[in-house]
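[Discussion] Sanity-checking designs against the backbone

I'm trying to build intuition for which residues belong where. Below is a structure token string of 171 positions. I'd appreciate it if someone posts a full sequence so I can compare it with mine line by line.
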């Protein structure tokens, strides 16, 4: 059985410390750095992606004419569901993993601006607002109608009970 990553990291740092003077905090930092490097090398050898090592800073991945996929480092105009599915992620999971807000479009800034301009030209914002108002009004109307129907049924039930009670008295 081979050595663990911790053992290998400690041997590397011990060898380094034997050749130069290192303070305790320098040794701790060197151990962490060496362990992380060994862990990344092991993941690459096993065929997996590097652990927590995006090719660029996530905040800088969305550029004017392209967006960099933080999973593979490639440039795209837009990150589609199909592209992210190759890495077992949905757009929501990708945003959460890399710290983007839920409303952040996974597209280049130029593409987002073009879509925004088209939507404004078509009046999609106003249409959506009108549709939401109409839907809310219809829901309120249906709710009021169901309340009145429920109230009518509630009033009708006591009359039936009274009639039944009168029939029992007559009999």
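Best answer:
Here's mine. Compare freely.
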């Amino acid at each position: 059985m081979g050595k663990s990553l911790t053992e290998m990291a400690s041997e590397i740092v011990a060898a380094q410390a034997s050749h130069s003077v290192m303070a305790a905090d320098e040794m701790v930092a060197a151990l962490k750095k060496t362990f992380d490097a060994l862990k990344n090398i092991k993941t690459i050898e096993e065929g997996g992606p590097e652990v927590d090592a995006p090719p660029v800073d996530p905040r800088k991945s969305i550029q004017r004419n392209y967006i960099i996929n933080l999973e593979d480092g490639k440039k795209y105009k837009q990150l589609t569901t199909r592209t992210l599915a190759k890495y077992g992620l949905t757009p929501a999971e990708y945003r959460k993993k890399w710290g983007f807000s839920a409303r952040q479009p996974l597209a280049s800034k130029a593409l987002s601006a073009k879509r925004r301009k088209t939507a404004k030209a078509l009046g999609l914002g106003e249409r959506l607002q009108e549709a939401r108002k109409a839907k809310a009004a219809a829901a309120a109307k249906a709710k009021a109608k169901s309340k009145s129907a429920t109230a009518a049924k509630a009033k009708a039930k006591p009359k039936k009970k009274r009639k039944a009670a009168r029939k029992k008295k007559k009999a």
